[in-house]
Write a structure and sequence with these properties.
42% of the residues lie in helices and 11% in strands. It contains 7 helices and 5 strands. Helix 6 crosses helix 7.
Length: 184
């Protein structure tokens, strides 16, 4: 076709109220125009900020974001195709990490947030809590006599063991010569 013909067809279709057939476009282009974000715990402020940042950036790129907030993310990602999937909360168990491999084997590009996974056909972003907790504690301690930990203390056991934020906080306080038990 002539230059601009596709754009004119799209404008005419929009003027007539036509809605694009996303399945047909996915077959034609190999892209779905959507990304998935599987969150470990949607109540976590980090997860909320992640969902907000990802969806805002995706919209700028003309992509839709599907946010998955329960453990059925592997079944959903197995049955649907996305241009990419970002997955958090996989450090809670070896089973969760195995699930990442199953989804990765299907061909969807993955970005996995983990302190325990190594890249294996997918990308891994690791952001250990220890340095961030230490920096926050140092800043707050420079301005206040007592710094308390506010958050969920009874977090699930991670296999293999990884430090929870509460454990990181206790370690930082103990390293500084303080008694962390009264501060949580």
């Amino acid at each position: 076709g002539s230059p601009g013909a596709g754009e004119r067809v799209q404008q005419a279709a929009l003027a007539l109220g036509c809605v694009p057939n996303l399945h047909a476009r996915a077959i034609r282009t190999g892209r779905t125009g959507s990304i998935a974000l599987a969150l470990g715990d949607p109540r976590d402020p980090w997860s909320q900020e992640m969902a907000s940042a990802v969806s805002q950036r995706a919209l700028q790129e003309g992509l839709s974001t599907v946010v998955l907030v329960d453990e059925s993310w592997v079944e959903f990602l197995t049955g649907h195709h996305f241009d990419a999937a970002l997955i958090t909360g996989v450090d809670a168990s070896a089973e969760a990490r195995d699930r990442v491999h199953r989804v990765s084997d299907l061909g969807t590009p993955l970005v996995v947030f983990s302190e325990l996974c190594e890249p294996d056909g997918y990308d891994v972003i690791s952001s250990a809590a220890g340095p961030a907790v230490a920096a926050a504690h140092a800043l707050l301690s420079s301005r206040h006599d007592r710094v308390h930990f506010l958050g969920i203390v009874d977090t699930p056991v991670v296999e293999p063991p990884a430090m929870t934020r509460a454990q990181c906080f206790k370690a930082v306080v103990a390293d500084g010569g303080g008694d962390p038990d009264g501060l949580i």
